[in-house]
Design a protein that fits this description.
Layout lengths: L1 H27 L14 E7 L6 H9 L6 E7 L6 H6 L6 E5 L5 H11 L4 E5 L9 H12 L3 E3 L2 E3 L4 H19 L11 E3 L1 H7 L13 H9 L4 E3 L7 E3 L5 H13 L7 H23 L7 H21 L9 H18 L5 E2 L2 E2 L1
Parallel strand pairs: 1-2, 1-4, 2-3, 5-8, 6-9
Antiparallel strand pairs: 4-7, 5-7, 10-11
Helix pairs in contact: 1-6, 1-10, 1-11, 6-11, 9-12, 10-11, 10-12, 11-12
Length: 356
């Protein structure tokens, strides 16, 4: 039993060090500095569309209200079966371009859009998000400042359960924090910026045989090609996503996100993902062993403290600290939640009327 404890303690220390580094990175990452940008720089906004008729009015209106006006919006229709095209046609804006997909899937849609984009900078987002009016302008300013090959824009959740918000803030903190220390391990396709030239360099690494992962495989490719990755915090550039409508949809979403992990080949990303997964197993073992030996309380408390250090900073940044009351309970439930998600990845996942 002592040997088991030492193994658990070692894993806990490794995990705590990693999360502490991410927390330091989050704190280190400053808000985007204001820089001047020329309106001569054309931006291409790329959105893959599949059955988004109910979201398109909001998306297109938000794009029309952008403070930066020199852009084109390429909506790549991934074989929608609803009224998405009719909704699009009701918006008379020469900057909006509707394109029918040649192939299937979001990744293929983005690849096709890149080939026809005329902007010097490409931004990707999703149809069901909320965009601030300063989104394009702020992303362009950040790109001009850091000159990254891949710029990870800020994304946060603005609705959903307390558990879902805390969970997403841990992902948000990891995304910004890991990039700030030069070890980016997460990103979201809801807010990315890159050039067409860089995307074409990464194409052979994007696993078009895997249905999802348009964002993470691009990050992995950028790391492999020694490209510069930057992430930043700026509320004027922050894309807001909605929480899931039900518990089942929440688990399906997380399983879809986790399902691409076996295809990762980058050492840093694989190590981070593996250590997080192993720590959840360690936590469950420690909770069971706690009935016999009180010193197994150490990994449970250590994990809760270091996780709260990261999540708490994100919550404070969004002025949501009152929700941290639920974090100790979430910390106990989180390992079980992760195991459920891992089990779900073993089964086919339905997403937008397709089986992944």
């Amino acid at each position: 039993m002592i040997s088991l404890y030492y193994i658990i303690a070692l894993i806990t220390c490794l995990y705590a060090c990693m999360i502490a580094v991410y927390a330091i990175g989050w704190r280190k990452q400053q808000l985007c500095t204001e820089v001047e940008v020329s309106d001569k720089n054309k931006v291409s906004v790329i959105v893959a569309i599949r059955n988004e008729a109910k979201h398109l009015p909001t998306l297109l209106t938000q794009l029309q209200q952008q403070t930066y006006t020199h852009f084109e919006a390429i909506l790549l229709n991934d074989h929608s079966t609803d009224e998405s095209k009719a909704v699009f046609d009701s918006f008379c804006d020469a900057r909006f371009l509707w394109v029918e997909a040649n192939d299937y899937g979001k990744k293929a849609a983005i690849r096709q859009a890149v080939t026809i984009a005329s902007g010097s900078l490409l931004l990707t987002t999703d149809a069901d998000v909320t965009l601030p009016p300063t989104w394009i302008e702020s992303m362009l300013k950040a790109f001009e400042q850091c000159r990254a090959d891949l710029l990870i824009g800020p994304v946060t959740i603005h609705s959903g359960t307390v558990f879902e918000k805390l969970d997403y803030w841990s992902l948000e903190g990891t995304t910004i924090g890991s990039a700030a220390v030069g070890w980016p391990v997460l990103c979201s396709g809801a807010n990315l910026a890159f050039t067409a030239q860089w995307y074409q360099k990464c194409v052979s690494y994007l696993h078009f045989d895997v249905p999802s992962g348009d964002d993470m495989f691009l990050l992995e490719a950028t790391r492999k090609l020694k490209g510069r990755v930057c992430a930043f915090k700026d509320k004027q550039a922050t894309v807001l996503i909605k929480g899931c409508s039900s518990l089942s949809s929440f688990f399906r979403q997380r399983a879809r996100w986790a399902g691409k992990a076996p295809h990762y080949t980058d050492t840093g990303i694989c190590f981070s993902a593996a250590l997080v997964a192993i720590m959840q197993i360690v936590s469950i073992v420690a909770m069971v062993m706690l009935w016999w030996q009180p010193y197994f309380l150490f990994p449970i408390v250590a994990k809760c403290l270091v996780d709260s250090l990261l999540v708490g900073q994100v919550a404070r940044y969004h002025h949501q600290m009152p929700l941290m009351w639920a974090f100790p309970l979430m910390s106990l439930l989180y390992p079980v939640y992760v195991l459920i998600v891992l089990v779900l990845t073993l089964f086919p996942i339905q997403w937008k009327e397709r089986t992944l």
